[in-house]
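Sync notes, pocket subgroup
Present: LS, DG
LS reminded everyone that the earlier model was apo-only. Rerun requested with manganese (II) ion included. Inputs:
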Amino acid sequence: MQQVRAVFISDVHLGTRACQADRLLDFLKEYESEYLYMLGDIVDFWAMSRGIQWAASHNTVVQKVLRRARRGDKVFFIPGNHDEALREYAGIAFGDIRVESEWVHQGIDGRRYWLIHGDEYDQVTRHHRWVAVLGDVAYNGLVRMNHVLSRVRRALHISGYWSLAGYAKQKVKRAVGFIFDFEDAVARATQQRSLDGVICGHIHWASDRQIGAIRYLNCGDWVDTCSAIVEHYDGRIEVVNWGVLAGAADRDKEAMDTPTLVA
Ligand SMILES: [Mn+2]
């Protein structure tokens, strides 16, 4: 167990079969924190409208978060596009959880980070919602296929977690352009607000990049890559690749070099 100053997670997609709630629970057990920021797409209302896949572990995630809030951790929920129904509650606290449409986190070193989900900087989701929904269906299909594949790999005693969606995405050149466009748009908006950095989610691509004067950080997701961001008490902010700890270091190293697509 480690005590850190802040934990940032996004794109958990509770309510879908693809959600890796067990891995998230392991991660949350390892990292206790003063601040817990949930940066959107925590609950997937889009997918749930097509059929709910609510496992016992999904309840456990909700309970753990509520318990942290009750205990006095500062818990913030910034809704994303998959849980946009909660956006109208921005500014309201539910028990000990604050819902905000955006927030600024001041690091222990004084740097100020803008916290958003990020879908408003995704030109695809923003202008062609039906394309986004279609992409969502295709993406979830791919992730489901990956689950079958990983069972086969386990049965064949092939070790390590391997991501088919991650692999496929890396092969899509256009996805790279999409990622860069998104990252640049977010960094520009951050700069306009005179902040030092941004921590967001949405594109399911964990990242820690310097874009001009702006530090751009993306939490990744808990359906495919299993990653989050933590701030340590010595001021270090880093991406934690929880999937890698299961033994896929090579995949991840490659993945960090080559950005990919999205949900
Ligand atoms: Mn999203």
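DG: The chain is about 40% helix and 20% strand.
LS: Confidence is low (pLDDT under 50) at residues 247-263.
Action: DG to write up.
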